[in-house]
Amino acid sequence: MVTAKTLQLNIDNMTSDGQGVARLGRDVYFVPGALPGEQVTVRLDGRRKKVWMTRLVSIEQPAADRVIPDCPHYQRCGGCDLQHLAYPAQVNFKQQRVEREFSRQGLVVPEWAPPITAEPWGYRRKARLGVRFSKDKQRNFLGFREAASEHLTNIDRCPVLPALPALDWMRWRDGISTLQGRDRITQIEVVAADNALALVFRILKPLSLADQQSLCSLAESLSADSSLQLWLNPGRDEPSVCIFPQQPVELVHFVDEQPLKMQLSDFFQVNGPVNRAMVQQALAWLQPQKEDVIWDLFSGHGNFSMPLARRCQHVSAVEVQADMVSSLQRQAESLALSLHAIEADLSNSGVLAHLPAPDKVLLDPPRAGAAALMQELNARKVSQVLYVSCDAATLARDLSTLAAAGYQIEKAGIMDMFPQTHHVETMVLLSYRDKRRG
């Protein structure tokens, strides 16, 4: 079979998701785990869309930037994909990736800010691990899914999660395996706030009181140097219930030297130090003034809008998730901040037509971008737009639309929110220039 064939290839590039790229004649090969400048032996794994998929067999000539991954689970776990690349080279790869996407759209950046980085390990404040009971093997698996697979990789510790005793996954796996309802737990979600650590167990059916007490006993033994909370989530839009401790503290994380309240279901940036630096850069670039009218679109629980509201009197924070909107409004009122939280689906055009014209707009959309908002921004001719994005391709697409309508890029910069992975955040500041006035 052709899939059993091995080839020796020279890697000359990398894809946007961090796979090595090689060319042999007219054929193109994607090689996960390979780096530019390397000579490798691969096994063919089928052809898709005129590109050969391969599996790395051996590295005959390693690149200068290759390092030994710190995580023993790296070869199997699908959580990280760049641990084999030295960290400075990871940042450089991400910078080049964003510049390449901009170039494809004909976008010119007059000024690139230095990349925002922080400690590349132990940074991840939110993660979801899978739990599965195997009837055949009569044991539980706990970990992340393998790359391109539904199988779980058992992990003992994860080096991109905080180094806390409570995140000893071997202990949790062993503890779950003793439960009567060991087949009822499907996931464990980590929520690491600045004042506590919450573990949310997603369950298919209620656990017995004895099983709950066993989990609480394990939690107590692991919570020596961290304020650990244990929650059960039954799914089906039902609220989570805290089983340890009896009176959990409200979760918060600090942004702009201010505690922002967090709900377990909230979206928040997973890298605390990079997020704090990102918010400060956004404030420095946008320079909010007291009388400015500012829209914060895709506002979440207030990561940008709360700091903005401390500096100006007219902030409209727009978010689709109702519980985040109500939480943000309550918190703003408790701090006497002039902020109006609005529930609206920003994937639909026209939902902002009733709002007063903004002087400045900040938007931080999901991976799909903000195509539905481009017409609104073009019509409003906003003096300044700050676009924060987690996807370089959709960002470049949206920026191209704005540029065609008269917006100009002033500066841009990347933020390495997800070290050891190919993901990258980008911030771009635009100003409106009426083409008729030059």
List keywords for this structure.
single chain; 438 residues; alpha/beta; 7-stranded mixed β-sheet; 8 helices; 21% helix; 31% strand; flat
Q: Sum up the overall morphology in one term.
A: flat
End-to-end distance: 63 Å
Tell me the major beta sheet: 7 strands, mixed
Percentage of β-strand residues? 25-35%
The class by helix and strand makeup works out as alpha/beta
**Unreliably modeled segments:** none
Secondary structure tally: strands = 21
Rg from C-alpha positions? 24 Å
> What level of helicity do the residues show?
10-25%
Helix-strand string: EEEEEHEEEHEEHEEEEHEHEHEEHEHEE
Strand order of the largest sheet: 8-7-6-9-10-11-12
Report the total helices: 8
Mean pLDDT: 93
Give your account of this protein's structure:
- By secondary structure, the chain is an alpha/beta fold.
- It is about 20% helix and about 30% strand.
- It has helices at about 85-105, 170-175, 210-220, 270-285, 305-310, 320-335, 375-380, 390-405; strands at about 5-15, 20-25, 25-30, 40-50, 50-60, 125-135, 140-145, 150-155, 185-190, 195-205, 230-235, 240-245, 250-255, 260, 295, 315-320, 340-345, 360-365, 385-390, 405-415, 425-430.
- The strands form four sheets. It has a seven-stranded mixed β-sheet.
- Strand 7 (about 140-145) and strand 8 form a beta hairpin.
- The radius of gyration is 24 Å and the shape is flat.
- It starts with 5 loop residues before the first strand and ends in a 6-residue tail after the last strand.
